Amino acid sequence: MCFLCDLKSADPSVTRPEPVWSARRAFLLAGTAVAAGAALPAAAQVDVGKASAMRKLVPADELEAAAQQQYGQMMAEANSKRALLPASHPQVQRLRRIAQRLIPHSAPWNERATQWKWEVNLIESPQINAFCMPGGKIAFYTGILDKLQLTDDESAMIMGHEMAHALREHARARVAKSSATNIGLRLGAQLLGLGQLGDMAAGMGAQLLTLRFSREDETEADLVGLELAARSAYEPRASVTLWQKMTSANSGAGSPSFLSTHPPGPNRIRELEANVPRVQGLYEQARRG
């Protein structure tokens, strides 16, 4: 599951920076939301189209700062329960090695990624789950590694997929789309100086708790993650075996939490199978390099 939980600070004493997303800017962006989004990297082998221009209606820096704060709170809570595994743990070291290979290939998909303070942690829990918050905050649960007996290649496919959601700013776009009606109703008042739209990023927690990515978002994340992994010398075919394992896990007792927002299915596997040949050359070149 791409878990994006409550990003609103629970501590009212925390002083937040003044919103930089003015109502006038929001009005101008709303009028041009159909404009072209971020282009694909010039050397991209997968075709996922342009990123949604709607994401520009939500300030990326505020969303990423809020995600960083919430991620820190989550890790602190896990640590207090002795569920946050130490840096010396073999599985933590394994995941961080994978991330070290994937992260250098992220910048062409989102120039902001060069500024992100990437983190990778592992939480001891039976949940079959993993996520990457906006700004590069990654966490895996031991359940997804142990219950699915993931290889390094398959783990890289999951990590690449989750990173792709952050790189393509799917959460930012989904929040903008879900808030579009409210923006329209409030815009006139905001332009008259009767309030601020900039507080939306701080108050979007309730939306993110129930946010589900679209089928198009999931396909994008699958394919961008596939390319990230291939460029990092991870076997592209592992994307298919991963989802075959997910399908088997879904047929057992109790559906994995990861699958509540990442439903497996033959279409998903067919799409990946069709794209494996496109990135095979990248994989072979990375292995030689």
List keywords for this structure.
mainly alpha; 3 strands
If you had to describe this structure to a student in words, what would you say it looks like?
The protein is mostly helical. It has one domain. The protein has helices spanning 23-31, 60-80, 90-102, 142-147, 152-167, 170-191, 205-210, 215-231, 238-250, 266-288, and strands spanning 119-123, 130-133, 137-141. Helix 5 crosses helix 9.
Separation, N- and C-terminal Cα atoms:
33 Å
Strand fraction: under 5%
How many domains in all?
1
* Count of extended strands: 3
Q: SSE order in H/E notation? A: HHHEEEHHHHHHH
Number of H- or I-type helical stretches = 10
Low-confidence stretches: 1-36, 192-198, 205-210
Largest sheet: 3 strands, mixed
Mean pLDDT: 78
Helix content: 40-55%
Strand line-up of the largest beta sheet: 1-3-2
Class computed from helices, strands and strand pairing: mainly alpha
Q: Whole-number radius of gyration?
A: 19 Å
Please tell me what the overall shape is: globular
Question: Layout of SSEs?
Answer:
Elements: H1 23-31, H2 60-80, H3 90-102, E1 119-123, E2 130-133, E3 137-141, H4 142-147, H5 152-167, H6 170-191, H7 205-210, H8 215-231, H9 238-250, H10 266-288
Helix pairs in contact: 3-5, 5-8, 5-9, 8-10, 9-10
Short description:
The chain has 289 residues and is mainly α. It has one domain (23-31, 51-288). Helix content is 51%, strand content 5%.
